[in-house]
Amino acid sequence: MREQGPxxxxxxxxxxxxxxxxxxxxxxxxxxxxxxxxxxxxxxxxGADAAPYLQGQISQDVDAVAPGDSAWSLVLAPQGKVDAWFxxxxxxxxxxxxxxxxxxxxxxxxxxxxxxxxxxxxxxxxDGWRMLAVRGPRAAEAWLDTVxxxxxxxxxxxxxxxxxxxxxxxxxxxxxxxxxxGDLEAARIRAGWPAMGRELTERTIPAEVGGLVxxxxxxxKGCYTGQELVARIDSRGGNVPRPVRLLEIRGDMSPGGxxxxxxxxxxxxxxxxxxxxxxxxxxxxxxxLGPVHRRVEPPAAATVAGMAATVLxxxxxxxxGGE
Length: 323
Known about the structure:
- The protein is of the alpha+beta class.
- It has six helices and 16 strands.
- The protein has helices at 50-57, 105-113, 181-191, 212-216, 227-235, 315-319, and strands at 34-37, 41-46, 70-76, 82-90, 96-100, 122-125, 130-135, 151-155, 162-167, 244-250, 263-266, 269-273, 276-280, 285-291, 300-304, 307-312.
- Strands 12-11-15-16-10-14-13 form a seven-stranded antiparallel beta sheet, covered by helices on one side.
C-alpha cells in the first residue's frame, strides 16, 4: 500500500477531466480513468498470533508485507483449489485488514477459522467499510490524497492498474467521475482480473487464471494449506486443463445478449463456458471471460450464443504479470 502525494503546491485539486493545463492555461492531456464504488467484504484480523497464524494458512508471505503495505493472497482448500482470493493489508499495530469480493466475507472467515486451535487470533467483519476503485494509466492524478481512507492500495495488474481506497467514510474527491460501474466491469474482464463466484470457484485451480499465481503466491515461504497442488503445477510449467481466456464477441451487445453459462464452441465442439460478460462500447464488442480447453490455442475463432467470437489470451497470461 502506497499513498499518492499531493498535487502542485499552491494550486488546488484539479479535476481529472479538466481540459486546462494549470501551468500554461492551455489544453491538458486528457486523463483517461474509470472510477466508481466497488462493493467489498472487509475483515479485521487481530491478536498476538495473527501474523504467524495467517502465515500458515495463506499463499502469500505475510512476513514480507511491511506495516502499511498490501499484498494479494489466496486461501486454499487442502486439495489446492481456491477458497478465496483477497487483499491483505498489514496495520502498524500488528493487526490486518482483509478485503474480498462481496458475498465472500463469511466464506473467508469460515475458512480461516477452520484450523484455529489454541491461538490468539480473532476475525471480525467490518460491515460499514466501502471501496472506491480508480483505474487507468493516470489514476494517480485524481488527487486521491484528499480522500479519507484507512487503506490506500496501488493495484498493479496488466490492463487494470490503478488505486483502491477503503474505509468507513470513503467519498470521491470533487470532479472525479464515478459513474463508470459498467466501464469498470468491462475493464476488469478485458484485463482478465478474476471475480469470486465467477472465474474463481471451489473448483478452480489457481494456475488456471493468468496472473493469479504470480500476484498471490510465494514460493519461498514455509508451508501453508493447499500448497502441494500449486507447487506441483508450477514445477510442470503451469500447464492446466482449462485456462481462463478472454473472448471478444461480435453481435448483440444488449444486457443478456451474452450471459454466464453460455457455451463456447470451436468447430462445433463445446470447449468451455462464459463466466463473466460485459459490453465494451469503445471496441463495439462484448468482452467475456471463461475457462477454455487447453487444446484451443489463442487466437482462435469461436461461437458464443450464436455469435462470432475470438478466443484470446488474457493480458496477464501474455505478460506473465500480476501485482
